[in-house]
Amino acid sequence: MSVHHIHLIGATSDAPATFLAEEVGEECCLICTHGNLSVEGKASDFFEALCLVRLELEKHRLIPFCYGASLNVYPSGMARDMSAGLKAYKLRDGRHARSEDLVEIFEQGPDAYRARSLCNERTSMSGYLLRGFNWSANADPQRRAAASPRMLRSGCLQR
After folding, report:
1. What is the residue extent of each domain of the chain?
2. Pairing of strands 2-6, 17-24
3. pLDDT tens for residues 105-151?
4. Which is nearest to 80 in space by CA: 159, 147, 157?
5. Are 67 and 105 in contact (CB under 8 A)?
């Protein structure tokens, strides 16, 4: 089990929320507590569990300030498999993700761009993927078109 203290944007208190992350069998469980509020998410990886917790927090107008809730951070399939979704890439227009772009989803940093909501983040990520995520200007258009729908169906982009 790991414990993470993360500030919530929109909270009336300066005290950070506590996120407890634990793998139970094949399931990744995440519990967020802040004052009297307790929210839980269970999924196949911690990034998806964080997405579920975020959906519940949004009902209270709260957004975690961490890379996992950042508009420009998303895990690759390999990052989800190898780290149970605890690591993701900071995405940048016009260049491939590199190892130095890999961040812990519960960490905070000045380059975390907060999304107003998970729906807002999904919309932005869908646009990013449709623009040709990590494709060079010389990429084969047929290959690009075939890959984009598959990428859109992955992870938090599912509804």
Report:
1. 2-157
2. antiparallel
3. 999 988 777 665 555 455 445 444 444 444 333 344 444 444 444 33
4. 157
5. yes
